[in-house]
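Cont'd.
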Amino acid sequence: MAMRAMVMRTMAMRTTAMSEALHRRITRAIEAANEAGRPALVPFITAGYPEPAGFADTLKAVAGAGDVVEIGVPFSDPMADGMTIQRSSFEALAKGVSLEWIFDELDRVGGDTPLVMMSYLNPLLQFGYQRLAARAVAAGVGAFIVPDLPYEESGELREVLETAGLGLIQLVTPATPDERLAKLCDASRGFVYAVTITGVTGGETGLPDDLTRYLDKVGRLSALPVCAGFGIRAAADVGAVGRHAAGAIVGSALVEALERGEDPAAFLNSLLDSPAAA
Amino acid sequence: MNAHPVNTEAETPDMRRLLEAELGGELPDERGRFGPFGGRYVPETLVPAFERLEDGVRRYLHDPEFQSEYRHELTNWVGRPTALTFAGTLSERWGAEVWLKREDLAHTGAHKINNAIGQALLAKRLGAERVIAETGAGQHGVASAAACARVGLPCRVYMGAVDIERQAPNVDRMRRLGAEVIPVESGDRTLRAAIDEALRAWVADPAGIYYLLGSAVGAHPYPYLVRELQSVIGEESRRQMIESAGGLPDAVFACVGGGSNAIGLFYPMLGDDCEIVGVEAGGRGDGLGENAATLATGTPGVLHGCHTMILQNRDGQVQETHSISAGLDYSGVGPEHAFLQATGRVRYVSAGDDEALEALEELCEAEGILTALETSHAFVAARRWARENPGKRILIGNSGRGDKDMPTLTRYPARIRSGGHESHGHENYGHENDSHE
């Protein structure tokens, strides 16, 4: 009962803060990091990995070290993810992690760090969009990244989310034509997710040479902060994208650290250690 | 079972209107939709690649020069038209007039080649540097390897590790035809994981790669493209039935995994006065994970780029499937089949592993044709239907030959038949899946 009361209180608090759209909190957290003279850090974790019982602690640890936390909903067919996130996804599923469980955990954990959720479309579709929006608002999830939902198919989900003060974070890639880039930046909420390399997550190829030009272009077209993701593994990468983007998203490298049983906060802090590197 | 299905959804004006649009050749619409099914749910990285593909399909597929090149290859390299065979012994036993459309006689042993050579020619026109493909039973892998060798493009085939084991002869064939076979160890290690892995490879090089998808599944324009290339099966069948059988069939049967041979056979006959039945893999039972009867027991969802019927749990996690036939062992199905079921125009039933094995054996012994385990499922439903509808004319899509299944079949010793037509055991296993009614 005590837990339920706490959940209700948290929900009430969040509802009163709703005069401002929840996705604005994401934007402000990134801007605050930039104002402090550093790129924002957006850590990604697969919910319930490596152990569902440790999710709350892992979340608190990465929320303490990051400015916005991206929570991955495991899916049976993660077609845009490389081996690391696939592995973590399958393992979390095998241990019973579901979207419902994730929301229950988030309600329980609380916390102030703005959250975004990464999920393939089908789990969201089966959960139901209205219910999804309500649970997201209660849990403090301000926006969704849906890697297999291109703009053209996104109308229905976008409408439900935006009505609730939430939004979709659009991905853009180096191959996105300029006209489409402008449209995607305009539709995005929270931040714009700039995929730095052509490929799935967790690639070993590093950052491409013309990254600077690409990130600058997205930055010019976007009213929102731009965060760069894919292939960011070390402090040097964060430093490199940090000069041309508002933030860096760290996914596979963090999941690998969790896989090795390392302290996620220490790993994330090490990424900001040497801003002069690169 | 003996009449057209009663499907309340088909009674709605929306579905009636959509079925008319389908019969008029207007579907998929410009968004790649067949009513509520289809669409294009792909990562942003692939959006430009899909737009290029769609543009290429629009420009070349019905272009007279492309068509004449394609038809030339179908005639001179694939060996079309394939035969229409009257199955005399089966007809006598079943009390029906049974005709077989012999896709097993097409080059490389199955209907898959119709699609593979068409898309390989398209890949060439689009300036692709290399081709990737996925394969389940290995038939599409072999067809892709052969087609790529024919047009001079390098080919890489993704194949689940489980399938590599149960379809070993095809793996060797692919390699001899110059393709590189990549074992997929992730996920369920069958066709679904192979598609996931092929998509990942494509995401990494969307400009240089042409993805030669093997079934009428996936994101738009694949379901449309594959249907158009496979429709040659139904077009030939109609003509041959009129010429040889003296008229169109009363009922048409084809097996459905992703559903490319079925849509190829069915599509040109949708407007005809005949019952159309798709047959899915009933595996070893009704439970989730026990079968691959997606249309009969699945629910709507998004998998591999399209909105269709899929086998999933309540959390939207796609479930593993089971079928004795690798080619039917898939958790999704082509969106056009989901649509045709919703409109009531096509009825989808299932046949179990044991029934399929037995039908395979009967066809061998009665007609001298070793058919594929996939194809055998269609014979199970056709025989059932024939018993309830005596004296009718039946067409079965004999989609592929069974040589590739020998490693599986050797685990089931051939029954010794003395008189020729007895002992159709396992009858109690049979079950209809009419849950959509």
